[in-house]
Amino acid sequence: MDSRIIRLLLVEPDVEDAMLVKEALMEIEERQRGRIWSPLFQPVHVERLEDALDVLAEEPFDVILLDVSLPDSYSLHGFLRLREVSAGAAILLLAHSDDDALAISALREGAQDFLLTWEIDSRSLARAIRNAEERQRVLSAARSDALRDPDSGFYSARAFQELGARDFWLASRSGFDQTVAVVEVDGLAESTPARGAALHRLPLDAAEAIRKCCEPTDLLGAEGETRFAVARLSPADAWNPISAGLRNALANLAPGVSAAVGEASLLRSGVRSFEELVELAAGALCENRRKIESSDRNVPLSVA
Description:
The protein folds into 2 domains: 5-143, Rossmann fold (3-Layer(aba) Sandwich), CATH 3.40.50.2300; 157-293, Alpha-Beta Plaits, CATH 3.30.70.270. The protein is built from 11 helices and 9 strands. The chain has helices at residues 15-32, 49-58, 77-85, 100-108, 122-143, 157-174, 196-200, 202-213, 243-249, 266-269, 274-293, and strands at 5-11, 40-46, 63-67, 90-95, 113-116, 177-186, 219-222, 227-234, 258-265. Strands 2-1-3-4-5 form a 5-stranded parallel β-sheet, sandwiched between helices. It has a 4-stranded antiparallel β-sheet with strand order 7-8-6-9, with helices on both faces.
């Protein structure tokens, strides 16, 4: 049974909202007592960003609950400053109905989750804290290279699936879209002595080309020496496809080498899990590879 103490910093200027969170924390302790996840919270409440920074300079915390509309910060300023000094704490955002777009932006910068203040209860807060801690654990392991592909530096297949599944859940509950692209580099089998050195570096060159054409907040995964995957969150009304940029970036890797890309979108496909979304993108990849092999360049590539 996990009954460890969770040090929690609440950064909330509104007295009533702060009381709501504290009551939910006490209810979580009562509801979870004796269960597998049975936390004991030690909350510290401050009302301003500067006070939070002072507290963090003195002691570490496991979880930070941050209101995104503090009186002494603006936009993402507060979150970014706390992220720099939080020593790996999982940061959850408390948003009001009129600033959920700001909360989503913070998610793309590394926040673990957000809750609308008027939706907070013990169930939603417990789920958010537990998921945030788990995702932070995966991220911390990935940053320490435990879940990184040693060649490309991308997330391993396991880490990509775990982090992608968390983003899928966030996208599903926030109305955002998640897009996955799977890319495979073909042509390595045609190795000759003259091309050997270039082909040896091909997977690394492909990974670097993918990294340069992607956004900083994209999840990048390696599923083998020559297969990679990218996952991206975007607003529902501003679909941001990945495949075109990947094809352009990988177009001239080496003579005789081609890159096939398949893409799938959560909102456009209606799938129910991240695993299904990846499988759909992989299916589109296979279809596009067949089109490349048949040299039918005039047929539009598939996007699921």
